[in-house]
Amino acid sequence: MRPITSLMLTLLLCACAALPRHEAPPLEVTLEVIREDPCAGDSLGLVLTNGSSVPVLYNLCASVLERHTEEEWEQLPSERVCTMELLTLGPGRQICYPMQLPKDTTPGQYRFLTRISSMDNGPQQLVSSPPFRVVAR
Known about the structure:
The chain is mostly beta strands. The protein is 12% helix and 39% strand.
């Protein structure tokens, strides 16, 4: 009787491993910059919108500013101090976070990046704002 039990248990485990895994759909989240043609040191707003059907976790203070160089995006250093907490943004909701450009920001194309994740501890995703232009004073 023991060999049959072992065989049945093995078959059951193999069958369970072969079941398709449910992958969560990508989160539908956008990040926008509210301010047209800002200058170095100007304040602007980062708007995060959750178009997903599930809550997302975020921290807009930890967003990264990038500058477009010849052919790539280059992350700029930041002296901003943030708490390392994750906030929850419900489905269909949006939040605006005030952000200030560094005083030494040079004219050019920029974007913000922020990390989000879902409540089910899925992988983090990067969300980028559309590029925006910083102009000289």
